[in-house]
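The records we work with from here on pair a chain with its fold. The integers have meaning only within a learned vocabulary of local backbone shapes. A complete example follows; check for yourself that the lines match position by position.

:::
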Amino acid sequence: MKCAGCGAELQFEDPKKPGFIPGDVFERRLAEGKEILCQRCFRLKHYGKYEPVELTSDFKKELKNVLGSFKLILWVIDITDFEGSYRKDIKELLKGKKIVYVINKIDLLPKAVSYKELKDWLKERIKTKYPEDIRLVSSKTGFGINSLKKHVLSFGYDKALIIGISNTGKSSLVNRLAEHTILVSPLPGTTLGMLRRKLKGAKFYIYDTPGIMTKDRAIDLLDIECQHKIAKSDRLTRKTFKIDQKKAVLVGGMAFITVDYEGDFKPIFQIFTYENVVLHETNLCKAKELWEKRKGNFLVPPCRRDELKKVFFKETYFDMIEAKELVMPGLFWINVKRGPFKMKILHPENIPLKLRDRLIKPKR
């Protein structure tokens, strides 16, 4: 039997795959003669709530099928997690489409970062022939929303597909743009459920897709409730550290940071992260015991002691200079105020840390 909403074959085993419905719910609705929807479509229809979809080969195939009906794509990217939300595998899928890069959450950046500096920084990373398609917005404050609408309408199309990694603020952005919500069936040949939303004040429709889950961001290691607690932040924490070889900095239970350097001047660096992430500086001898015993209660994230039970950690070394920043996708980035120095980080082995050209100038 197939889902009446998306057409996926109903199944009872895997909640992460299309067509899942709990067995008892299926039996009850069948006996009552009611419409049978998979769990994802039921929540979509009755609560306007999406279940995130994993970025698997199956999903990529589904997205490719959907893309065939759209010429214009709005790709929502989180500026506070640029490396986690701007992805080459997604850009590859969008080849041949008109892409508007919607850079969200700019209200969370330090005020010292000018929009010109930010746009210049983004142009170096988003290799597009049309830099005017890089749009800065805040779904929280409404900044840039009207400008984005005018830009989208200027192409002369009557619809657009909106996509984005989970926790980028895509839903809040759509609510800023749209008038109302309508449940629609999937496009022919797909099982991807979507919401069609009418752009405010225009005969133009946005087709909203589920947020995309990945497996290579720190936040992906947490359960949904913990992700919500960490990522749904109204501001970024920015904390400055000036430590020597006898100190350590703990980023929750996700990163254990130490430094090594030559000379008389201690390294200075700032960590930018979500406001609910605990940043703790302590003596190295105490840090190891704290790291082992207080994950999930004092050291957050994780939000529970057993949440990272199956996660293995490894040590990675970096040469830190003022021209670079170090990023753990999905959780934090480190800006160097005084260097050079060596940094050692103990972190989840499947989360690749990345060095990038600095977004925040050292003297800011």
In short: The first strand starts at residue 53 and ends at 54. The chain has three domains: 1-48, 50-213, 218-357.
